[in-house]
Amino acid sequence: MPDTLYDVYLVPSGTRGGEQNIVSPVEGDKLEFYETGVWLRRKGGRNFFPYEQIRTIREHEGERP
Predict the structure, then answer these.
(1) By residue range, what is the domain housing residue 43?
(2) Which of 3, 10, 15, 49 has its CA 20 to 30 A from that of 29?
(3) Per-residue pLDDT tens for 34-64?
(4) What is d(CA 3, CA 24) in angstroms, rounded to the nearest whole number?
(5) Phi first, then psi: what are they for 51, rounded to 5°?
(6) Cα–Cα distance measured from residue 40 to residue 21, given in angstroms and rounded to the nearest whole number
């Protein structure tokens, strides 16, 4: 049965993005919305992304790895 998955596409952020070593899109299986940004649960943990760093969020059906 397919699960809901999320791809978070980030705005290019220059050196800050390089320091974080996060490659866009960031894939996850749970997304929580908050006033200042989103928490994305992904393999190996969770990441917080402020809204100003997010370009697009894509929700789709798929199989969890």
Answers:
(1) 3-62
(2) 15
(3) 999 999 999 889 999 999 999 999 999 987 5
(4) 21
(5) -55, -35
(6) 16
